[in-house]
Amino acid sequence: MNNSFEPAMRAVLDWEGGHVDDPEDPGGETRFGISKAAHPKVNISKLTKDKARKIYRRDYWDVCGCNDLPSGLDVIVFDSAVNCGVKSAVRWLQQAVGSKVDGIMGPKTKAAAQAASPNNALREIVALRGQHYGSLETFERYSLGWMRRLADMHQRALVLVKEG
Q1: Would you call 48 helix, strand, or coil by DSSP?
Q2: pLDDT for the residue numbered 54
Q3: Which parts of the chain have pLDDT scores under 70?
Q4: Is the C-alpha dihedral spanning 86, 135, 39, 3 positive or negative?
Q5: Which among 128, 130, 119, 131 has a CA at the least distance from the CA of 155?
Q6: Domain residues for 14?
Q7: What is the tally of structural domains in the chain?
Q8: What is the CATH number of the domain that holds 112?
Q9: CA pair distance 93, 29, nearest whole angstrom
Q10: Are 109 and 94 contacting, i.e. CB atoms less than 8 angstroms apart?
């Protein structure tokens, strides 16, 4: 499969900027999108972009098996993992490709993703992620930003599907 890590990383960093410590955000303090809640041992205020890139590769891209996903699906699954958690991202992929939904990325999920229509799977993941956002208590506060990001990632993923 294509390795879209660099375009995916650029896309995430377009949405995940510098240092943020919004008391209303359940993720808590973040820098480059890496949250204290998800990475309690990381000194968020001193986190470098290079270190964030390594965390993204290890804890999101690799855990979600994105190197083994078709172009486009890899990007949307990666961004979903970053924004909503790895288990949610994998579950949405599994639902979208008709695989057993257990939140664990394994060979059967990868095979189902490779056999699926990328456009249909993308559409389903986007819909499931949007539904998830709507269920959150913080939806009213963050909805417009989340939906803009989701629409942007969908567009970026569709471009990669066409190129792949």
Answers
A1: coil
A2: 96
A3: 1-3, 164
A4: positive
A5: 119
A6: 5-163
A7: 1
A8: 1.20.141.10
A9: 28
A10: yes
